[in-house]
Amino acid sequence: MNTEIKKLLASARKVARNTYSPYSKFPVGAALMTAGGKVFTGCNVENASYGLTLCAERVAVTSAVAAGYRKFKALAVVGGRRKAARPCGACLQVLSEFCGPDFPIYLAPLDKPSKVETVSLGALLPHVFRLTPES
Fold first, then answer.
1. Catalytic residue (choose from 4, 46, 57, 117)
2. In the chain, where are the structural domains located?
3. Which of 24, 47, 60, 127 would bridge 32 by S-S if both were Cys, CB 3.0 to 4.6 A apart?
4. 129 near 46, Cβ under 8 Å?
5. How far apart are the two ends of the chain, measured CA to CA in Å?
6. How confident is the model at residue 31 (pLDDT cuts 50, 70, 90)?
7. What CATH superfamily classification does 3-122 receive?
């Protein structure tokens, strides 16, 4: 694994410490790298009205978009114990708005930093929803 990806995973692990997860007690951190190498992070922010909870991955994406970025190189997600957490369907769909099926996602559990799994967006979300104009 190259240094760039190790730094991305370290950023995700670090931001997971900032999570607000009093209900699930399931901290997750995400780090999204732009095509130019800039990194945006996010952590999950829960809410008593659970549907209003924000996932780490979507926080990272929206932060990058708010800063004017639309092209991304990789995502690291750190969460879960013993086994790495995977992004939910909503996060994958948001990623698919900006990234293709080959977009790499690096997953690692909080307590095992060296146990990294690499998956593609397409493998996790093989049937992307696309809005196509009516003919």
1. 57
2. 3-122
3. 60
4. no
5. 46
6. very high
7. Cytidine Deaminase, domain 2 (3.40.140.10)
